[in-house]
Amino acid sequence: MPVAFLGHGSPLNALESNRYTQAWAAFGRSVPTPRAILAISAHWYINATAVTSMRSPRTIHDFFGFPQDLFDVEYPAPGAPELAEEIADLVHPTWVGADVDSWGLDHGTWSVLTHAFPNADIPVVQLGLNAYKPLDYHVDLGARLAALRDRGVLIVASGNVVHNLGALDPQRPGAGFDWAHRFDEDVLTVLHDRPGDAAALHEHADYRKAVPTPDHFLPLLYVAGLTAEAGDQPATLVDGVEYGSLSMTSYALGTDCPSADGDGHGAGLPETPEPSDTNL
After folding, report:
1. Cβ-proximal residues to 237 (8 Å cutoff; 6+ apart), any chain
2. Which of 40, 96, 115, 136 has the greatest number of CB atoms lying within 10 Å of its CB?
3. Could you give the CA distance from residue 72 to residue 80 in angstroms, rounded to a whole number?
4. DSSP states of the chain as a string?
């Protein structure tokens, strides 16, 4: 099965049609039907490594200040407790906890899957990001998940390469600051040339601006680990930096999905001039 990193941006993308959401939909159409989906979302950033293991994960609306239509969105995909057990066995001796009731599918997962797999009929398990672990832990764990691809599991990581909400400029739709473009482009170079070294990106001159907090960057490191394990190069599904400091770039590994075309506009950002990390 393929692997994808999808730059998810605002929750409003769940309701919108723009070149980013169209790229997610095209990716979903390009892959064979998965046995299950392992989602790695920026928004389950916790103090342990865990996977959801309930039969019916709830749709979590982990944001505020958005239209009621967004809170009405449900993504009723079934869970897969057996996959949670399989993941724990696969990465042993790394400990992975089984979450039976505290989480579900947050907007980092369902805002992209509602376009890629709109029928919500494929089982979904979500992996929690361990906030206490260094960057190389996440690269290594990604590489150790590679066997799932041969078992019919589609891995979808969801975050943003550049995610600095404090620097957002509403006057820059479809455009980014120089440092944001530079970091976005250098990340792609690393993924192509030396994905196993992706943790070293924290030494990049623009890292602190591009990644003021690691939550949205960590999902990319899982794809880096998977890419290193595969010995292949990911393809860019769609790229672009919105409002100065939000990269919407998406990658896929192991698929012939065509790249999206467009002008880079329409990231679906809220109109408020002071968004918070809860919003995106």
Report:
1. 4, 6, 23, 24, 26, 27, 250, 251, 252, 257, 259, 260
2. 40
3. 24
4. --EEEEE---GGGGT--SHHHHHHHHHHHHSPPPSEEEEEEEEEEESS-EEE--SSPEEP----SS-HHHHT--------HHHHHHHHHHHTTS--EEESSS-EE-HHHHHHHHHHSTT--S-EEEEEEETTS-HHHHHHHHHHTGGGGGGTEEEEEEE-SSB-GGG--TT-TT-B-HHHHHHHHHHHHHHHH-GGGGGGGGGSTTHHHH-SSSTTTHHHHHHHHHHHHHT--PEEEE--EETBTEE--EEEES--PPPP-S-S------S-SS--TTT-
| Pairing verdict, β 104-105 and 50-52 | unpaired
Read off the pLDDT of residues 52-107 as tens digits, 9 standing for 90 and up. Answer: 999 999 999 999 999 999 999 999 999 999 999 999 999 999 999 999 999 999 99
pTM over 0.85: yes
Is the peptide bond preceding residue 170 cis, with omega within 30 degrees of 0? no
Q: Quick one: which of 138, 113, 129, 152 has its CA closest to 6? A: 113
